[in-house]
C-alpha cells in the first residue's frame, strides 16, 4: 500500500498556541513511517514547515503520489500534543486542499484522542486515531475493514462509532529513526536553547514517554500518559545518526526527563549538546553535575508554583519546600548554562511571595518566567474537575473559559486570541 504521512503547514495567527512556532521533527510520523516500511508499505512523509510547502503544495504532492491512505496530524509534533493549537483550521485547510485525492484519510493527534466526534466533523476525515498513533496507523494499513481496527473512531449516518479506548504505544522497542538529510539541514532551530554557542543543526529525540505524575494542568490523560523508557541502544544509535548529519543540539521531548545515568554517561563522550524538560526535585546534586558534563545546556524545570499552597493545588506531589527547590535550581545553574523555573498563574499564590522568589532565582542566574494563565485542555485533570468528561463542545468550552478568565496572556501572543469558532470558520466546514 502507498501511505502519505503529512505534518501540515502550521500558522498561528490569533491563536492561543503556547508551543514553539519553529519547525520541529514530526516524531509520531517518523515512528509510523518506520513501522509501515517494516511491513513493506511505500511511504511518502511530508512536513510543511520543514520543507517550506503550504497546504495546497502539500496536497498536490500527496495527489501525485496517489496513496491509498493519507494521515494528517492535528498538532505540530509529539512535543506539543500536550499544548496543541485548540483550533483545527490548519489540518482542515490541508484536507480541503487535498479534496479526495489522497485515498482514505486519517487524523491523528490530541483532538481526536479526547473528542473524536467534533474532530471527525470539523475535518471530514474518514477515521481518527484515539491516543498514541504509530501502531494504529500500521494496523490501518494492514486491514481493509477499518471499522475493526481498535483505538479508532468514525462517523456512521452522522453518529460517532468508536472501537475501543485510547491507545498507549509499547514505545520501548521503537527503532532508531532516520530523517532526510535535507530536513535536518533545514532544522537550524535549537529548541529552548539560549546560550551563545549554537553550533550545528537542531533535532528532537524521545528517550522516554509519559509521566508518573498527574499534575492538574497537564494534558496527557488521553495520550503520552503512562511512563515508559525507550531502549538505550536505539536512543544512542539515533543520536549518532543525527550527529553524522551535522546535528549539534538535541532536544529531548520527554514529558519528564528523569535521571538516566547510562544515557548521560553515553553522551559525555559525544559531540552534541542537549536540552531537557524535567522536575528539579527528582535530581540529586551529583546527577546534576553529570547532566552538565554530558552536554546539557538547557533545563526547563516544571516548578509551576513558587509556594507550597500553589503546588498543592496543582497536585504536584512535591515533598520539597520552596527554599530546597530554589537551592536545587541554583545548583543546576552551576553546571548548565540556562535553567528555567516554569511558572503557571495560580490564584492561591501570594503575588508578593512569587515576586520575592522570582527575584531570588533571577539574581542567581535562574530564569523564572512571569506566571502564565492556565488553559484547561480537554485531556487535563483540570478540565475534568471543572466540567467532567469532554463532550463535543469541550474545546470551545475550554477556550471560552480561558478568554473570559484572563486579561493578560502568555508573552508569545501579540494580541488577544480570537474565539475558536472564528478561528475555524473558514476551514472547518464539513
Oligomer: single chain
CATH top level of the largest domain is Alpha Beta
Strand content: 15-25%
- How many β-strand runs? 15
Instruction: Name the CATH architecture of the largest domain.
Output: Alpha-Beta Horseshoe
Q: How is the main sheet built?
A: 7 strands, mixed
Q: How many structural domains can be distinguished in the coordinates?
A: 2
Report the end-to-end length measured between terminal Cα atoms.
Answer: 27 Å
Number of helices: 17
Outline the low-pLDDT stretches: none
Task: Tell me the layout of helices and strands.
Layout: E1 2-7, H1 27-38, E2 42-47, H2 48-51, H3 55-65, E3 69-73, H4 89-98, E4 104-108, H5 110-114, H6 116-123, E5 127-129, H7 134-142, E6 152-156, E7 159-163, H8 181-185, E8 201-205, E9 208-209, E10 228-229, H9 232-244, E11 247-252, H10 261-268, E12 273-278, H11 285-293, E13 296-304, H12 308-313, H13 322-335, E14 338-343, H14 351-363, E15 367-368, H15 381-387, H16 394-405, H17 420-424
Parallel strand pairs: 1-2, 1-3, 3-4, 4-5, 8-11, 11-12, 12-13, 13-14, 14-15
Antiparallel strand pairs: 5-6, 6-7, 9-10
Helix pairs in contact: 1-7, 3-4, 10-11, 11-13
Task: Describe the protein's architecture and organization.
The chain is α/β, with parallel strands linked by helices and 430 residues long. The protein has two domains: 2-170, 3-Layer(aba) Sandwich (Rossmann fold); 181-368, pyruvate-formate lyase- activating enzyme (Alpha-Beta Horseshoe). The chain has 17 helices and 15 strands. It has helices spanning 27-38, 48-51, 55-65, 89-98, 110-114, 116-123, 134-142, 181-185, 232-244, 261-268, 285-293, 308-313, 322-335, 351-363, 381-387, 394-405, 420-424, and strands at residues 2-7, 42-47, 69-73, 104-108, 127-129, 152-156, 159-163, 201-205, 208-209, 228-229, 247-252, 273-278, 296-304, 338-343, 367-368. The strands form three sheets. It has a seven-stranded mixed sheet, with helices on both faces. Helix 14 links the parallel strand 14 and strand 15 (367-368). Helix 3 crosses helix 4 (89-98) and helix 10 (261-268) packs parallel to helix 11 (285-293). The model has no long low-confidence stretch (mean pLDDT 92).
Amino acid at each position: 500500500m502507498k501511505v502519505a504521512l503529512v505534518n501540515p503547514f502550521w500558522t498561528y495567527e490569533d491563536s492561543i498556541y503556547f508551543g514553539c512556532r519553529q519547525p520541529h521533527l514530526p516524531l509520531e510520523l517518523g515512528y509510523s513511517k518506520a513501522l509501515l516500511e517494516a511491513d513493506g508499505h511505500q511511504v511518502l512523509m511530508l512536513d510543511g514547515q520543514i520543507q517550506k510547502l503550504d497546504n495546497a503544495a502539500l496536497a498536490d504532492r500527496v495527489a501525485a503520489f496517489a496513496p491509498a491512505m493519507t494521515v494528517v496530524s492535528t498538532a505540530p509534533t509529539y512535543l506539543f500534543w500536550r499544548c496543541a493549537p485548540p483550533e483545527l483550521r490548519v489540518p482542515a485547510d490541508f484536507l480541503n486542499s487535498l479534496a479526495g485525492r489522497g485515498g482514505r484519510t486519517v487524523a491523528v493527534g490530541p483532538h481526536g484522542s479526547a473528542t473524536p466526534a467534533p474532530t471527525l466533523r470539523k475535518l471530514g476525515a474518514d477515521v481518527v486515531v484515539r491516543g498514541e498513533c504509530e501502531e494504529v496507523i500500521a494496523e490501518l494499513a494492514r486491514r481493509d475493514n477499518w471499522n475493526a481496527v481498535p483505538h479508532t473512531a468514525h462517523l456512521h449516518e452522522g453518529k460517532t462509532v468508536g472501537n475501543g479506548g485510547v491507545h498507549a504505544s509499547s514505545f520501548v522497542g521503537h527503532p532508531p529513526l532516520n530523517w532526510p538529510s535535507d530536513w535536518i539541514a533545514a532544522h537550524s532551530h535549537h529548541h529552548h536553547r539560549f546560550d551563545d554557542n549554537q553550533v550545528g543543526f537542531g533535532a528532537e529525540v524521545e528517550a522516554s514517554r509519559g509521566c508518573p505524575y498527574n499534575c492538574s494542568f497537564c494534558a496527557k490523560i488521553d495520550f503520552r500518559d503512562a511512563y515508559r523508557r525507550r531502549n538505550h541502544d536505539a536512543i544512542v544509535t539515533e543520536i549518532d545518526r543525527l550527529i553524522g548529519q551535522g546535528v549539534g543540539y538535541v532536544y529531548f521531548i520527554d514529558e519528564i526527563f528523569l535521571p538516566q545515568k547510562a544515557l548521560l554517561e553515553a553522551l559525555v563522550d559525544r559531540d552534541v549538546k542537549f536540552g531537557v524538560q524535567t522536575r528539579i526535585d527528582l535530581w540529586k546534586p551529583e546527577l546534576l553535575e553529570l547532566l552538565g558534563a554530558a552536554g546539557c545546556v538547557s533545563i526547563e524545570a516544571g516548578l509551576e508554583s513558587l509556594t507550597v499552597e500553589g503546588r498543592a493545588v496543582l497536585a504536584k506531589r512535591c515533598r520539597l519546600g520552596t527554599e530546597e527547590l530554589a537551592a536545587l535550581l541554583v545548583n543546576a545553574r552551576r553546571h548548565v548554562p540556562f535553567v528555567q523555573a516554569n511558572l503557571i498563574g495560580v490564584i492561591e499564590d501570594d503575588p508578593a511571595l512569587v515576586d520575592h522568589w522570582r527575584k531570588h532565582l533571577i539574581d542567581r542566574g535562574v530564569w523564572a518566567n512571569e506566571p502564565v494563565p492556565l488553559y484547561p485542555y480537554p485531556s487535563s485533570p483540570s478540565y475534568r474537575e471543572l466540567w467532567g468528561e469532554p463532550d463535543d463542545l469541550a474545546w470551545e468550552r475550554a477556550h471560552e473559559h480561558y478568554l473570559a478568565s484572563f486579561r493578560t496572556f502568555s508573552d508569545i501572543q501579540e494580541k488577544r486570541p480570537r474565539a475558536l469558532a472564528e478561528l475555524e470558520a473558514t476551514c472547518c466546514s464539513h
